Amino acid sequence: MNGNELVFGIAAVIAVLSALGVVVSRSAVRSALCLVVTFFCLAVLYFTLQGEMLGVIQIAVYAGAIMVLFLFVIMLLDSGGGQGGEEGTDWKRYWGLAAGVALAMIILAYVLSPLQGETRPFAPEGYGSPHAIGRALFSTYTWPFETVSVLLMLGVVGSVLLAKRRLP
In whole angstroms, what separates CA 95 from the centre of its chain? Predict the structure, then answer.
Protein backbone atom coordinates (compact mmCIF):
# COMPACT_ATOMS: atom_id res chain seq x y z
CA MET A 1 0.00 0.00 0.00
CA ASN A 2 1.49 3.31 -1.06
CA GLY A 3 0.88 6.77 0.40
CA ASN A 4 -1.82 7.66 -2.12
CA GLU A 5 -3.87 4.60 -1.20
CA LEU A 6 -3.38 5.32 2.51
CA VAL A 7 -4.65 8.90 2.12
CA PHE A 8 -7.57 7.59 0.04
CA GLY A 9 -8.50 5.07 2.74
CA ILE A 10 -8.32 7.60 5.57
CA ALA A 11 -10.35 10.18 3.62
CA ALA A 12 -12.92 7.53 2.69
CA VAL A 13 -13.38 6.47 6.33
CA ILE A 14 -13.73 10.08 7.48
CA ALA A 15 -16.19 10.78 4.64
CA VAL A 16 -18.38 7.83 5.62
CA LEU A 17 -18.31 8.77 9.32
CA SER A 18 -19.15 12.41 8.62
CA ALA A 19 -21.92 11.35 6.23
CA LEU A 20 -23.35 9.26 9.05
CA GLY A 21 -23.08 12.35 11.23
CA VAL A 22 -25.22 14.24 8.70
CA VAL A 23 -27.95 11.64 8.99
CA VAL A 24 -27.75 10.95 12.74
CA SER A 25 -27.37 14.49 14.07
CA ARG A 26 -30.52 16.06 15.50
CA SER A 27 -29.25 19.62 15.07
CA ALA A 28 -29.54 21.04 11.57
CA VAL A 29 -26.41 23.17 12.02
CA ARG A 30 -24.31 20.22 13.20
CA SER A 31 -25.63 18.19 10.32
CA ALA A 32 -24.59 20.93 7.89
CA LEU A 33 -21.12 21.08 9.44
CA CYS A 34 -20.76 17.31 9.06
CA LEU A 35 -21.77 17.78 5.43
CA VAL A 36 -18.92 20.29 4.99
CA VAL A 37 -16.47 17.69 6.32
CA THR A 38 -17.93 15.15 3.89
CA PHE A 39 -17.50 17.56 0.98
CA PHE A 40 -13.86 18.21 1.87
CA CYS A 41 -13.16 14.48 2.19
CA LEU A 42 -14.73 13.93 -1.24
CA ALA A 43 -12.41 16.60 -2.63
CA VAL A 44 -9.44 14.72 -1.15
CA LEU A 45 -10.73 11.54 -2.77
CA TYR A 46 -10.89 13.31 -6.13
CA PHE A 47 -7.34 14.55 -5.69
CA THR A 48 -6.06 11.05 -4.93
CA LEU A 49 -7.76 9.78 -8.10
CA GLN A 50 -5.99 12.44 -10.23
CA GLY A 51 -9.19 14.39 -10.69
CA GLU A 52 -7.77 17.74 -9.65
CA MET A 53 -10.40 19.76 -11.48
CA LEU A 54 -13.21 17.84 -9.79
CA GLY A 55 -11.53 18.35 -6.41
CA VAL A 56 -11.28 22.10 -6.88
CA ILE A 57 -14.89 22.28 -8.07
CA GLN A 58 -15.96 20.19 -5.07
CA ILE A 59 -14.33 22.66 -2.67
CA ALA A 60 -15.39 25.84 -4.45
CA VAL A 61 -18.94 24.94 -5.36
CA TYR A 62 -20.15 22.48 -2.77
CA ALA A 63 -18.08 23.20 0.34
CA GLY A 64 -18.27 26.92 -0.37
CA ALA A 65 -21.35 28.13 -2.17
CA ILE A 66 -23.86 25.34 -1.55
CA MET A 67 -23.05 25.10 2.16
CA VAL A 68 -23.44 28.86 2.58
CA LEU A 69 -26.83 28.48 0.92
CA PHE A 70 -27.78 25.59 3.24
CA LEU A 71 -26.73 27.46 6.37
CA PHE A 72 -28.60 30.56 5.17
CA VAL A 73 -31.78 28.53 4.73
CA ILE A 74 -31.32 26.82 8.12
CA MET A 75 -30.88 30.15 9.88
CA LEU A 76 -33.75 31.69 7.94
CA LEU A 77 -36.14 28.92 8.91
CA ASP A 78 -34.82 28.76 12.48
CA SER A 79 -35.51 25.03 12.62
CA GLY A 80 -33.21 24.34 15.55
CA GLY A 81 -35.91 24.75 18.21
CA GLY A 82 -37.08 22.13 20.64
CA GLN A 83 -39.40 19.39 19.62
CA GLY A 84 -42.75 18.60 21.14
CA GLY A 85 -43.58 15.69 23.40
CA GLU A 86 -43.57 12.10 22.24
CA GLU A 87 -47.04 10.77 21.47
CA GLY A 88 -46.08 7.25 20.51
CA THR A 89 -43.64 5.33 18.40
CA ASP A 90 -42.32 7.14 15.37
CA TRP A 91 -42.28 4.38 12.76
CA LYS A 92 -40.73 6.64 10.12
CA ARG A 93 -37.40 6.40 11.91
CA TYR A 94 -37.44 2.59 11.82
CA TRP A 95 -38.57 2.46 8.19
CA GLY A 96 -35.81 4.92 7.29
CA LEU A 97 -33.22 2.84 9.12
CA ALA A 98 -34.37 -0.33 7.34
CA ALA A 99 -34.28 1.40 3.95
CA GLY A 100 -30.83 2.80 4.70
CA VAL A 101 -29.45 -0.60 5.66
CA ALA A 102 -30.96 -2.18 2.55
CA LEU A 103 -29.49 0.55 0.34
CA ALA A 104 -26.07 0.18 2.00
CA MET A 105 -26.14 -3.57 1.34
CA ILE A 106 -27.02 -3.03 -2.32
CA ILE A 107 -24.24 -0.46 -2.75
CA LEU A 108 -21.76 -2.73 -0.96
CA ALA A 109 -22.68 -5.61 -3.29
CA TYR A 110 -22.11 -3.40 -6.34
CA VAL A 111 -18.80 -2.10 -4.99
CA LEU A 112 -17.42 -5.48 -3.93
CA SER A 113 -18.41 -7.44 -7.04
CA PRO A 114 -15.84 -5.82 -9.40
CA LEU A 115 -13.15 -6.08 -6.73
CA GLN A 116 -13.26 -9.88 -6.82
CA GLY A 117 -11.12 -9.94 -9.96
CA GLU A 118 -7.56 -8.71 -10.36
CA THR A 119 -8.30 -6.00 -12.92
CA ARG A 120 -8.18 -2.42 -11.73
CA PRO A 121 -10.24 0.33 -13.29
CA PHE A 122 -8.30 2.99 -15.13
CA ALA A 123 -9.15 6.51 -16.14
CA PRO A 124 -9.03 7.41 -19.82
CA GLU A 125 -6.60 10.06 -21.02
CA GLY A 126 -7.76 13.55 -20.06
CA TYR A 127 -10.14 12.32 -17.36
CA GLY A 128 -10.95 15.14 -14.94
CA SER A 129 -9.48 17.87 -17.12
CA PRO A 130 -11.41 21.14 -17.49
CA HIS A 131 -11.93 20.46 -21.21
CA ALA A 132 -13.41 17.00 -20.62
CA ILE A 133 -15.66 18.22 -17.80
CA GLY A 134 -16.87 21.21 -19.82
CA ARG A 135 -17.58 19.07 -22.86
CA ALA A 136 -19.54 16.51 -20.81
CA LEU A 137 -21.36 19.12 -18.73
CA PHE A 138 -22.55 21.23 -21.65
CA SER A 139 -23.25 18.46 -24.14
CA THR A 140 -24.30 15.23 -22.43
CA TYR A 141 -25.46 16.62 -19.08
CA THR A 142 -26.92 20.00 -20.03
CA TRP A 143 -30.48 19.10 -19.08
CA PRO A 144 -29.63 17.64 -15.61
CA PHE A 145 -27.32 20.60 -14.92
CA GLU A 146 -30.05 23.13 -15.64
CA THR A 147 -32.66 21.06 -13.78
CA VAL A 148 -30.53 21.03 -10.63
CA SER A 149 -30.02 24.79 -10.80
CA VAL A 150 -33.78 25.37 -11.09
CA LEU A 151 -34.48 22.98 -8.19
CA LEU A 152 -31.95 24.78 -5.97
CA MET A 153 -33.55 28.12 -6.81
CA LEU A 154 -37.03 26.74 -6.03
CA GLY A 155 -35.75 25.46 -2.69
CA VAL A 156 -34.42 28.88 -1.72
CA VAL A 157 -37.60 30.66 -2.83
CA GLY A 158 -39.73 28.12 -0.95
CA SER A 159 -37.73 28.53 2.25
CA VAL A 160 -37.99 32.31 2.05
CA LEU A 161 -41.77 32.03 1.58
CA LEU A 162 -42.04 29.65 4.54
CA ALA A 163 -39.98 31.95 6.72
CA LYS A 164 -41.99 35.01 5.65
CA ARG A 165 -45.24 33.29 6.59
CA ARG A 166 -43.99 32.84 10.19
CA LEU A 167 -43.11 36.49 10.71
CA PRO A 168 -45.61 38.50 12.84
Answer: 22
pLDDT at residue number 10: 92
User: What pLDDT sits at residue 116?
Assistant: 67
User: For position 147, what pLDDT does the model report?
Assistant: 92
At position 156, the amino acid (one-letter code) is V
Q: What is the rounded distance in angstroms from the CA atom of residue 144 to the CA atom of residue 150? A: 10
85 φ, ψ (degrees, to nearest 5): -70, 160
Which positions of the chain have pLDDT values less than 50?
80, 82, 84-85
> In this structure, are residues 145 and 135 in contact, taking their beta carbons and an 8 Å threshold?
no
Asked whether the whole model's pTM tops 0.70, one would answer: no
The reported pLDDT for the residue numbered 19 is: 92
Q: Where are the alpha helices (DSSP H) in the chain?
A: 3-24, 28-48, 52-57, 67-77, 91-112, 130-135, 142-166
Q: Which fold has domain 1-78+127-168?
A: Four Helix Bundle (Hemerythrin (Met), subunit A) (1.20.120)
C-alpha span between 36 and 42 (Å, rounded): 10
- Rg of the chain's alpha carbons, rounded to an integer? 20
Domain-wise residue ranges, the chain: 1-78+127-168
